[in-house]
Each structure stands twice: as structure tokens, then as C-alpha cells.
Structure prediction request, 151 residues.
Amino acid sequence: MVKRSWNALLWIGFLLVVAAPVSYFLFFVRFPVTRDVPWAPLPMFAAGLAAIALGAKRALREPWMYRGRIAGPILMVLGVAVCGLFVVGMFVAARRLPASGGAPRVGQAAPDFTLPDQDGREVTLSKLFRPDSGAAAAPRAVLLIFYRGYW
Prediction:
């Protein structure tokens, strides 16, 4: 009787699939090029799922030699689930911004506010729009850009 050996491809593939989202959240999220579009874990997912598929195929074709006839399909389902959750979470759920009920609308007057400029001096919106230099001065226009960030 031939002793069956461990099917290393199954377990290496599953480790790659688990390492992909972990590496994204621990390492790749630090850099804008890999944070904004999480492309770096996708090849890890592909390599891991391919290794699981090859290991499961080998276990099903040669069950007398390799273990994993039951574990192979289970690990493949778990790997696809982890990959699917990551893809849906990163490309669908994370892109859905909450509704902004308090955001100003087009044409709506902006509320007066005071903020520091690049030199640290206080700048007030109402003083920018209506200068204090008298009636002869033409009113200046102010362009406000509202960027709704989501961090």
C-alpha cells in the first residue's frame, strides 16, 4: 500500500488567498498607488485559487497518492468566498459614499466662514467678496470648490 502524501498545493494556495487581503490591510494600504485601486492583492488571489484548483485536481485524479479529495473543494469554496468578499468590499461597498444632506447646492449662497490661508493669516469669505476699500471698488468673485472626501 502506497502512503498518501500531503497535497501541498492546496494549503499553499489557501495561504496565498488568506494572505492577499491581510497583506493589503497591513502593507499595501500605506501607498496611494495600491490603496486607491487595490490591484496588488488580485494576482495573489489568482495564484492562490489556481494552486487550490491544481491541488484539488491532483487529489481527485490520484486519490491513492495525494490527500485532499474532501479538503480541496472546501478550500476552493472558502478561497472564492474570501476573494469575492474582498472584491465586493473594495470595488463596490467602499465606493458607495453616504448621502450628504447638508452639502450646499449649486447656486446656493455659501455661509460665511473664516479659515487660515497658506501663510496662517485668517481669511473671511465675506471680506473676500465685499472688499472694505469703498464703493468705487468692483466686487470680486470668489470660487469655492467643495471636495467631499471620504476617509
Observations:
- The chain has a mean pLDDT of 83.
- The longest helix spans residues 41-61.
- The two ends are 60 Å apart (CA to CA).
